[in-house]
Write a structure and sequence with these properties.
368 residues, mainly beta, four-stranded antiparallel beta sheet, 24 strands, globular
Length: 368
């Protein structure tokens, strides 16, 4: 047995961004939208989450109506684009156009970066799924400057004779669109396709994203990050996702500390949603004495006062057949090792996403 989830591009209100003081609501968070960055983010939000994402999780055991969820391999599902084991692709290439600074536009290839685990309650559809992602970042700018809009990723469009890749190493080759969205819907960055990858020379690194998807309500609060040794000079009051940083004077660089012990190098996280994470930041460790985001708040521009991020999922029983639902997550985004991207996107910082789609119970792991 297995359960599949097919994402759709569905508008609506899937949450709230609330400032210090509680009212009024700064903005509603759009369904099928991805939000990233601190209060100084300059990239227009939200990004459109590609539709037609198709992910299959195995049902490993059942107790009453509650099923335990696990990963599937490409051998089991028949495709690397629908499985959920490490290395499986997650959705079509994600375009991140930045109209405020076109050269900092990014193409993102998401894949599963860890073990998928979770639960599903079949008679209500209630879902909790841990699905760690690895986001491959390509600093592309607008690769198709002769076309209207900004296309950070190569596109897969029909020029009159059949869908072909435009841009990238597979330029001119046949492809299958990975999304329904495109020029006909007003989104000029799509459709994208894994048949049309970005140029390898634009790759700038991998970004780990700890997706904890839920069909319920998820709320994070930005607070003072106190996980340090007492030598901090930080004045940030609304930290959602803190990382150890060198800001003390004299000589503070503003840089975030890399844990050289971790394979591949990771930035040292110290705070998340009002709670300490890992060991305290210390002047004795690479002079990174303060626990901070790049800037305070969330989802700028002018988001420094934002204190609460709430995203709202929903679910329906799967016993009668396919059911529409919304899976949501709030998560931490570390720095990217690229100063240009971190500056434009205001990273490290929180992120939030809502995935609207259709869940289906399947008798076979390929769910076809």
């Amino acid at each position: 047995m297995a359960v599949s989830f097919l994402t759709t591009d569905t508008p609506g209100d899937c949450g709230d961004l609330i400032p210090a003081g509680g009212t009024p609501t700064v903005t509603n968070l759009a369904c099928s939208g991805l939000y990233t960055g601190g209060g100084g983010n300059s990239v227009p939000l939200p990004y459109a989450v590609p539709d037609k994402g198709f992910a299959i999780n195995s049902i490993t055991s059942c107790t009453g109506q509650t099923a335990a969820l696990g990963a599937t391999t490409s051998t089991q599902t028949g495709s690397n684009r629908s499985c959920t084991a490490p290395g499986c692709l997650f959705g079509a290439p994600l375009a991140v156009p930045n109209a405020s600074s076109t050269p900092t536009s990014v193409c993102v290839i998401n894949s599963v970066g860890g073990t998928a685990t979770g639960t599903l309650t079949c008679n209500t559809g209630a879902t909790a799924l841990a699905l760690p992602l690895s986001s491959q970042l390509y600093l592309t700018g607008d690769k198709l400057a002769a076309q209207a809009g900004i296309q950070p990723c190569p596109t897969c469009r029909n020029p009159g004779t059949g869908d072909v890749c435009t841009g990238g190493p597979n330029n001119g080759l046949a492809c299958t669109p990975g999304t329904n969205c495109g020029p006909g819907t007003g989104d000029l960055s799509y459709p994208t396709s894994h048949d049309c990858p970005p140029d390898a020379s634009d790759f700038i690194g991998n970004l780990p994203v700890a997706f904890l998807l839920s069909s319920g309500t998820v709320s994070w609060t930005g607070t003072v990050a106190t996980n340090d040794t007492g030598s901090t000079a930080s004045s940030q009051t609304r930290v959602f996702s803190g990382f150890c940083r060198d800001i003390a004077l004299p000589g503070g660089t503003g840089s975030f500390d890399v844990d050289g012990v971790t394979a591949g190098g990771q930035f040292r996280q110290c705070w998340e949603n009002g709670m300490a994470v890992n060991t305290a930041c210390s002047e004795a460790i690479n002079n990174a004495e303060s626990c901070e985001q790049r800037t305070t708040g969330a989802f700028g521009p002018n988001g420094g006062a934002n204190r609460t991020i709430t995203v709202i999922g929903n679910s329906m029983s799967l016993l009668g057949g396919p059911a529409v639902g919304t899976l949501v997550s709030v998560f931490s985004i570390p720095p990217t090792f690229d100063a240009t991207i971190d500056g434009a996107g205001d990273l490290p910082a929180p992120g939030a996403v809502s995935l609207v789609g259709t869940a289906t119970l399947c008798s076979a792991l390929n769910c076809m």
